[in-house]
Write a structure and sequence with these properties.
alpha+beta, 3-stranded antiparallel beta sheet, 8 helices, 7 strands, 18% strand, globular
Length: 232
């Protein structure tokens, strides 16, 4: 299965040589609810969303000064068949949201405390199983405990945020949650497919008629890192 990790261009170039490393080896979390420090998070749909959020956008979508390099985000494609299956676990947010009203946690716990509870039990309760696939079906995200080696990274796309303004605006308009994924997950999967030049997934919302999913591939650089023997 091919999954994706969105980040900024410098981090992606390091990952091409060193692999994708978990947060405890790189930086603090970008999100209010701190992610698992030993995990790398993957997605079937939201690679562009996470990529755009990983860059410095203080200048907005204005063109860079003359002579300056373009501002680009990156999406890395990861082949799960090249990973240790015992390291694949669900996203703790997906576990928390799908368990609401069904688990035995204290009713007074808020969402953040519930999420921390499941985050801290990913290795103990969810490794060596198929819960990561359930997480993907529910919310389009899962996690890998430990670093992802370069050999599992099959392609990398670099996207110029100015040349692809329409795609960027569509990518950032996302809510990564179980309910939102039911309605908009296929749209964000289509953005990823467009970036990599892959066929668009079927979708009843008709996103293929939207202007940012046309033949315009200006500002997209695609690198094929593992051209031989890539499993579908």
């Amino acid at each position: 299965m091919r999954l994706y990790h969105g980040t900024n261009e410098p981090a992606a170039r390091r990952a091409m040589a060193e692999g994708l490393r978990p947060r405890r080896e790189t930086k603090r979390s970008n999100w209010k609810a701190t992610s698992h420090p030993g995990a790398v998070y993957l997605t079937s749909a939201y690679g562009p969303f996470f990529g755009v959020n990983a860059i410095d956008r203080r200048r907005g979508l204005r063109a860079p000064p003359q002579g300056a390099p373009p501002v680009r985000f990156a999406v890395l494609e990861v082949e799960t068949d090249r990973l240790n299956p015992f390291c694949l676990v669900p996203d703790e947010d997906a576990v928390e949201q799908t368990a609401r009203g069904h688990d035995d946690l204290p009713p007074g716990w808020d969402m953040h405390r519930r999420t921390r509870h499941y985050r801290d039990r990913l290795m103990r309760d969810y490794a060596n199983g198929k819960a990561w696939e359930t997480s993907l079906r529910a919310m389009g995200t899962c996690a890998h405990l430990g670093a992802i080696p370069p050999s599992a990274i099959t392609r990398v796309a670099f996207v110029d945020i100015v040349a692809q303004r329409g795609l960027v605006w569509a990518a950032v308009d996302a809510v990564v949650a179980v309910r939102a994924f039911r309605f908009a997950g296929s749209l964000h999967a289509a953005l990823t497919a467009h970036i990599f030049g892959d066929p668009l997934p079927a979708d009843p919302l008709g996103f293929d008629r939207l202007g940012f999913l046309d033949t315009n591939r200006d500002g997209i650089e695609l690198l094929n890192l593992q051209p031989e023997g890539v499993a579908a």
